[in-house]
Amino acid sequence: MDESVKHKVVMVAACPFPANHGSPASIREMSEALVEQGHEVHILTYPIKEDIPVTGPKIHRVSFPFLNKKRVKVGPALEKFVYDPLMVFRLIWLIWKYKIDVIHAHNYEGALIGWLAKLVTRKPMLYNAVNNMVDELVTYDFIWSKGFAMKLARLLDKTIPFTGDYVTAVSDSLKDYLVKLGVKKEKIQVLPAGVNPGMFETNDKSTLRQKYGYGDDDNIVIYTGSLDAFQRIDYLLEATAVIKPKLDNLRLILAANIVNPKDLETIKTKIAELDIGDITDIVEGLKLEKLPDYLALADVATLPRTDCPGHPVKILNYMCGNIPIAGFTGAAKGLHHMKNAVLAEDHNIEQFAESIEWLLNRPAMAEKIATEARRTLGSLYEWDVLAQGIAVIYQMLRSGDYESLQPELKRYIRQSYQPRFWENRQMDADALPADIREQRKGERRQNVVRIDFIERRRVVDAE
Length: 463
What we know:
Elements: E1 8-13, H1 22-36, E2 40-45, E3 58-61, H2 80-98, E4 102-106, H3 107-121, E5 125-129, H4 133-136, H5 146-157, E6 166-169, H6 172-181, E7 188-190, H7 205-212, E8 219-225, H8 233-243, E9 250-256, H9 261-274, E10 280-284, H10 291-297, E11 300-303, H11 313-320, E12 325-328, E13 342-344, H12 349-361, H13 363-377, H14 383-399, H15 406-410, H16 434-439, H17 453-462
Parallel strand pairs: 1-2, 1-4, 2-3, 4-5, 5-6, 6-7, 8-9, 8-11, 9-10, 11-12, 12-13
């Protein structure tokens, strides 16, 4: 592909922007990387924003009198029924005014808005899928009937992904889900969330603990992200209650960038019921610039969410922060048990507690696992690499040539981001894929059949 070819793109971000969570963070970093590579990027979004600098892209906002322009939240909201139709008309106008080449729509609302504009302007659309509705819509309590919410979720899952001319899915499992629904394999590509490793260069642990009021002997477990119900903070609280009697100086930090008042009250009630209030700190409204500090002062980072089709951005933050990760398998995209994380079966709280405790009691092994996670990250998830692959997809959409540009796309974006581990003793080395032979020599193949947690600990201790 001719790298001198530059694209004019409009990002459809039907969400607060910029904001310190999930999709808005990814859209911001993706757009900045594309601008750095010479592309012209416009972002169409809501008037709601946080005080986070955005360098490069041109931001366009819809607005409406009397609507709340300060509250940042995740999930459905009544004001979206006003903002979204306004975005359709504004998007059509932006495409005509700036001679846009490609519509890049994010999430379900962005795809619907982009599709309606595509019908009018005939511009190609890339749909970036980060979730499915079946797993999330019923958790928001926005729709009065859970049954109706599930039916609506299934309808959205079976229609919205087909509005794009090409689809990127944030994880392998989400790609597989969309392919099963009927999205053509040749029109979908895994595109994980990216990360900027430079932001995680920070001060030493002891200095940061003193700064934030923690001691060197504290065993600090941290969760970062929103406190919405689908994040399953209740699982983390129950696991903490299991560990508390077994471990001295245990501290839990819930570092929340987004706080839903209803969910926060539920969490506080749960903390009181479990009698862990004396060891639990809730940080509300965590600023992006403070995130590296909180990760650096902690001993273990957690993923309490289960059954997640997307790729939680917090995983990449944890990996970049060089902090050992304990979590459930359903949300652990890009992680491998006892290789670069310690994982429990979904919804198994006792096993989740054991995973956290295991890491806290074995600092040398925890450091090894964290280092391996950082090594796994490599350059695969860095935005300057991923952005070059996105530019190839833009060229595919503009030219209609999806086949001949595949080799170029593979230079920057993998076909799969699922870790692959191979047992060299059980197969001929010539049978291994070339990239595995060169980059994964000696690594063990992931075992599909899980073994008892105590047995797994014994295996690792023997290594």
